[in-house]
Amino acid sequence: MKTKLYVLYGGKSVEHEVSLKTAVTVLQSINESRYEVYPVYITREGLWCTPGHLAKDELSIERLIAQPAFPDPALSIGEILSGIMGLPGPKVVLPLLHGPNGEDGTVQGLLELLNVPYVGNGVLAAALTLDKAMSKQMLAQAGINQTEYRVYRHEEWTTDQGAVLRRLEDAIGYPCYVKPASLGSSIGISRCTNRGELLAGIREAFSYDKKLVIEREVRGREIQVAVIGNERPLASLPGEFIHDHIFFDYESKYMDKRLTMQIPAKLADGLTQRIRELAVRAYQAHGCEGLARVDFFLDREGELYLNEINALPGFTNFSMYPVMWERTNGTTYSELIEQLIGHAIARHQNKQTIQYTK
Fold first, then answer.
1. Which of 44, 187, 236, 283 has CB atoms 3.0–4.6 Å from 226's, for a disulfide?
2. Is pLDDT above 90 for 220?
């Protein structure tokens, strides 16, 4: 019997479009001899719906979002999912939801309550990695080097903006980066070189989140490592994008056709090994399982700083995460999806051995 693969995509996050692109690429790469694919689309308004089983030749963004019938909005999400996933036989869920309400532990918690295996990080790791402020506290506790930063909540900012600005200029200085605490794909991030830009950047970040992170700029290279696995995670060879952007923002990442990948990144052998070991260490410190991409800064003096962990990195077939694995050990895109599904099922089966009550 084929395994039923439920793919969640879309969502209420501003990263909705990124999720759709990921879903189409993943769905077109699924091995149909092993899996029956059931797309589950979450609209921008938060409605959950599905067209039922789809074959590869039916897949497109237009087809995936033009659902023939929406579920009764009076039903709870749990009732909808129980109905969708109530078919007999083995099943696994593949969440491809970026940002809040998908990558932050909320959907993972729902899937835990439904007691179904799902790909990627669990509730705690998903929440920690999406919240940059909490992640930085975890990295500090683990003794992993990172750039100077400050965290501010909206109430602190509105209470005394002048005092906040003065503290930031004294402690962080310019250039600096202002980031919403819980968002990805470089959305809402600003590079600031003076007070006027800092004011604008803070206002922009607060339009996406009620908590933000301000970091001192590290001039140098951005090095990325893909990590996969549960109890014994593996790190890929490091990679980097070759570009001439001072700030690698959303437009640079997704619109610049001149970007090229350097995999493996040109690093001394000892540094390559150190970066891979640090990536695994950070992954385990957050309790990650399944997959994550760990991003570093390497400054001009050779100092290494951990930038952030992305628990659901870009996952189209030309994204850095799958390409790093292909160049590390020859794993194809389809094989990588199979491995991630395998880790999800193994984790779920292991968890079923725990007795919560006697």
1. 236
2. yes
pTM: 0.90
Residue 251 pLDDT > 50, yes or no?
A: yes
Q: Is 294 exposed, middle or buried (0-12, 13-18, 19+ CB in 10 A)?
A: buried
Cβ pair 296, 307 in contact under 8 A:
yes
Residue 42's beta-bridge partner residues? 10, 48
- Contact present, 310 and 184 (Cβ < 8 Å): yes
pLDDT per position as a tens digit, 288-340:
999 999 999 999 999 999 999 999 998 988 899 999 999 999 999 999 999 99
Report which residue type is found at 258: R
State how far the Cα of 305 lies from the Cα of 307, in Å rounded to an integer. Answer: 6
Q: How far apart are CA 214 and CA 315, in angstroms?
A: 27
Helical H runs in the chain? 16-27, 61-65, 77-84, 106-114, 123-130, 132-141, 154-159, 161-171, 195-206, 250-255, 269-285, 320-329, 333-351
Which phi and psi angles does 166 have, rounded to 5°? -65, -40
Whether the CB-CB separation of 93 and 116 falls below 8 Å is answered with: yes
Overall average pLDDT of the 71-87 stretch: 69
Interatomic CA distance for residues 102 and 124, integer angstroms? 13
